[in-house]
Amino acid sequence: MSPALATPRFDFTAPVPPVTELGRVHFIAIGGSGMSAVARLYLEQGVSVSGSDRSDGAALRELQAEGATVHVGHDPAHVADVDTVVISSAIPEDNVELAAARAAGLRVLHRAQGIAALLPGRDAIAVAGANGKTTTSAMTTVALQAAGAEPGYVIGAPLAQTGSNAASGAPGSPIVVEADESDGSFLVYRPLVAVVTNVQPDHLDFYGDYAAVQEAYAAFVGTIRPGGLLVTNADDAGAARLAGRAREAGVRVLTWGTGPEADVRLTDLSTTGRSARATLTLPDARTVRLDLPVPGLHALHNATAALLATTVGLGLPMEQALAGLAGFGGAHRRFEPKGEAAGVEIVDDYAHNAPKVAALVHAARTAADGRRLVVAFQPHLFSRTRDFAEGFADGLAGADVLVLLPIYGARETQEQYPEVTSGLLADLVRSRGTGVEVHETADLASAPHTLRTLVREGDLVVTVGAGDVTTVGPRLLDLLREDTV
Predict the structure, then answer these.
(1) Strand 336-341, strand 344-349: pairing
(2) Domain spanning 15-111 has what CATH number?
(3) What whole-number distance in Å separates Cα of residue 117 and Cα of residue 109?
(4) Pick from 219, 361, 404, 408: CA 20 to 30 A from residue 466's CA?
(5) 114, 102 contact by CB (below 8 A)
(6) Smallest Cα–Cα separation from 402: which of 348, 461, 481, 344?
(7) What is the pLDDT of residues 202-214, one digit of tens each?
(8) Is 227 helix (H, G, I), strand (E, B) or coil?
(9) Phi, psi of 46 (to 5 degrees)
(10) pLDDT-based confidence at residue 4 (cuts at 50, 70, 90)
(11) How far is CA 95 from CA 55, 74, 88, 91, 183, in A?
(12) Each residue's pLDDT tens digit, 243-286
């Protein structure tokens, strides 16, 4: 493995036993959305599943009802009678259950390896990229369903159509996997079709620099099965370089984009209100119309990738896949409507790196359709805010009103980055001179109250970020409803 991808905890290039050989499986932090999804798929396969989490919740109760043994709190005794333990990168080595599993010589798998154990005998579509992974994975799933494939899927957010972020699908059917590049775990899947939406400098806390990020994606492409396909974005410089390297290595490549160098070219792109459309010119010179019920030019790129993975990658019917995309219902926290009160519409979105935020603000401006756009943004990670502050400012400057929440540190602390605050972004946005009205809040709890004083009838409010900013929209709705009583 490349030194840039090396981790002492997991070898993502090593073969993973099929799920039928894992025995009794215990999931640490089973209540998380990603881990609970994999646990649910294991239960559907007839695997004996147990799991623990530090607090109780709906996910634990649902898994228990489906046959899992669940525990609130961590205890070494919970792994005494299991064969395999599944964890995420967030579980530290000093977790008492993980330490007991290591001491007992149990098989310990990363969540991605746990997913890979479900893939033997199935054609996998693995979707990677700095931006658009979840939406593209969701669109691919919907396109496959419309084309009659009955796919399985494991993606980062629930589909609006199903309310779930994972399903086994029909035996032997294709399966869509959102492939996370943040910790190198996307090397484990060995897909038939790999989709790379873009290759951009992100997760530098893990990789160190952009060169290492690019090497990781090259390694990911190297895991495509013989005879498989790479679908990627000719408009993105990093992805275009990746396509060139892949072709040199003998990998079959299909690119999409707006320029003449793309194998599949998008023209006549437009986005109005809550819809988007484009004409696609295919390699055989045929043209098809792509219509989406979601806003944003970026959505057209995501949908094109999904369409090509489904039709060229797996050979399924084009017209049926297009019809499925035309009815795409969205995914959780991806421009997700939260409600309307006092004439104010509220939408929530997970965007958390600079290109995502810029694309979101552009799409929201279209969806606002002449209304005032109010953006409440919670930066995610001090290091990301510092490293990409200029890009964040460029995107956020497109709002009419901007409310900045304190940075959501996740695995980082303010003490590590004392000079990095949301005030850095506030100053940069103001310096853009676009006239955006910028406000800052002292904490998460005050954000809904600040917004209530700023919004007015007809506004579109978008809450943005990967942290707990998602709670702000519902609270704002409550406050606005109280005002109208």
Answers:
(1) antiparallel
(2) 3.40.50.720
(3) 10
(4) 219
(5) no
(6) 461
(7) 878 788 899 999 9
(8) coil
(9) 85, 15
(10) very low
(11) 15, 8, 12, 7, 19
(12) 999 999 999 999 999 999 999 999 999 988 788 999 999 999 99
Number of H-type helices and E-type strands within the chain: 16, 21
C-alpha 104, offset from chain centre? 35
Nearest to 140 by CA among 121, 120, 124, 163: 124
Cβ distance 291 to 271 under 8 Å? no
Domain positions in the chain: 15-111, 124-326, 336-484
Q: Which two tokens stand for residue 197?
A: 């939406």
What is the four-CA torsion angle of 202, 207, 212, 216, rounded to 10 degrees? -80
Any idea which residue has 């989406």 for tokens? 292
CB count, 10 Å around CB of 362?
17
DSSP 465-485: -SSGGGGHHHHHHHHHHHHH-
Give the number of other CB atoms < 10 A from CB of residue 235.
17
Cβ pair 231, 195 in contact under 8 A: yes
Element holding 377 (H helix, E strand): strand 373-377
pTM: 0.79
Asked whether 414 and 453 are in contact (CB, 8 A), the reply is no
Give the active site residues: 133-134, 178
